[in-house]
UniProtKB/TrEMBL annotation:
This is Uncharacterized protein. The chain crosses the membrane at residues 33-54, 99-118, 148-166, 186-203, 215-233, 245-269, 276-294, 306-327, 348-364, 370-390. InterPro entries: MFS_trans_sf (IPR036259). The keyword Membrane applies. It comes from the Eukaryota. The keyword Iron-sulfur does not apply. Keywords: Membrane, Transmembrane, Transmembrane helix. It comes from Symbiodinium microadriaticum.
Length: 408
């Protein structure tokens, strides 16, 4: 974090007004170099701020921790946008004032993060400190050659790359349909934040249940993206209603995908080599963004020109969703009841009735399909027996009536 803070401070200092002392800094080339260096610092802050809490807190709270991080990030972006507008409206020398503000924020936030990480270094190096963790620590080699990593490569190249390209394209699609270009950004902010919070908070509860792992939420997010793109890509010239549907479902899908990806990486690969894995995957995202951009039309086009872009995503994302569901079936939570590690009772009374409790727990909680099989036989017997029993009672009544009126 110290390195990221220094990298962030240097380009901001370089962009302050040094024209009288160092004229060479006050050039367009110097501005581009400063932006490139500051982009590296932003990657430091973003990556560490996202994954450090996931490493520090116990893994059973990974969803809630990720939700808090996502909400804080969204709230911080909104606050910084408002500060930018306030400084621009109230200061004549706006550029220098804003650079000074950026310098103060970078130094203060970076310093606070360095102090916090220094005080909690054991928690932030859980895999090296022999702290308890319910995840199996995997080597970097085994992680890179796993099916999960192969799927994540496709997901970051196609799915996450599309989300970032969609942030640029959604405004143009809305404008072509006659809606304000800002409508896409507003919808993405509101519904995207909602999807992030819901997906991450639900993950803690469903992770221990069959088909409740992070890959299931990735699949749902991809299907939501596909539904929104299909609404805008199916008509040859979509109207405003179709674009509204696209804004809703694509915002939910993109927010859920970006929100659940960090805890998914933590749960699938552990924490030992998480930074390297995340860096490799985001390299693929850098290739995915311009690849999706090839499907976007030139400026000033109607909504029908975005049909290839929307239809490609609508056809591709269900395939990725099916892959996530198939991979999710191999998670520990999808393998049924773990008969080797049941939680044992503590008292004599509970020990005495433990066989009854274990039977009910297995039949009605862990392997509920057994209860359905029992119910199927019971209901089948009733369905077959009741008509025969009614017919038997009718025959007995008819025999009694016959005996009363006829001599044998």
């Amino acid at each position: 974090m110290s390195i990221g803070t220094v990298i962030g401070v240097v380009p901001i200092i370089g962009q302050l007004d040094w024209s009288k002392i160092f004229p060479s800094l006050d050039t367009l080339t110097g501005l581009k170099v400063s932006y490139a260096i500051f982009g590296m610092a932003e990657a430091f802050f973003s990556t560490i701020a996202t994954f450090a809490p996931l490493e520090a807190f116990p893994v059973q709270y990974v969803g809630a921790v990720s939700a808090a991080v996502q909400v804080s990030t969204s709230l911080g972006a909104s606050i910084q946008s408002e500060v930018y507008l306030l400084l621009k409206d109230n200061f004549t020398n706006f550029v220098q004032v804003y650079y000074t503000y950026m310098l103060v924020c970078t130094v203060v936030c970076g310093g606070l993060m360095v102090c916090a990480f220094w005080e909690n270094s054991k928690l932030l190096h859980r895999s090296k400190s022999n702290l308890a963790d319910d995840l199996e620590q995997r080597s970097l080699q085994s992680s890179l050659f796993s099916m999960n990593f192969l799927y994540m490569c496709l997901l970051f190249l196609l799915g996450v790359g599309f989300v970032f390209s969609y942030l640029d394209a959604a405004g143009d699609i809305n404008a072509a349909a006659g809606l304000p270009a800002s409508r896409a950004t507003l919808t993405f902010g509101i519904y995207g934040a909602l999807a992030r919070v819901v997906a991450n908070c639900a993950l803690d509860y469903t992770r221990s249940k069959p088909n409740g792992g992070p890959l299931t939420y990735i699949a749902l997010s991809l299907l939501s993206l596909a539904a929104g793109l299909a609404a805008a890509g199916t008509p040859s010239d979509p109207d405003t209603a179709s674009v509204h549907v696209m804004n809703l479902f694509c915002s939910l899908g993109a927010g859920g995908l970006l929100g659940v990806t960090p805890p998914a990486l933590r749960l699938l690969f552990g924490s030992g080599s998480l930074g390297i894995i995340y860096g490799l995957l985001y390299l693929l995202t850098a290739f995915g963004i311009p690849t999706w951009g090839l499907l976007l039309p030139s400026q000033g086009c109607t909504t029908g020109c975005f049909r290839a872009y929307c239809c490609t995503g609508a056809a591709l994302f269900p395939v990725l969703a099916i892959g996530a569901l198939l991979l999710g079936r191999g998670d520990d939570a999808s393998r049924g009841y773990d008969y080797g590690r049941p939680v044992m009772p503590k008292g004599w009374f509970a020990n005495f009735f433990y066989p009854l409790w274990e039977f009910g727990h297995i039949v009605f909680v862990c392997d509920r399909w057994l209860a359905w099989r029992f119910l199927r036989h019971f209901m089948g017997f009733l369905i077959c027996y009741i008509p025969l029993n009614i017919q038997m009672q009718w025959n007995k009544q008819m025999m009694e009536e016959y005996k009363k009126h006829h001599e044998l």
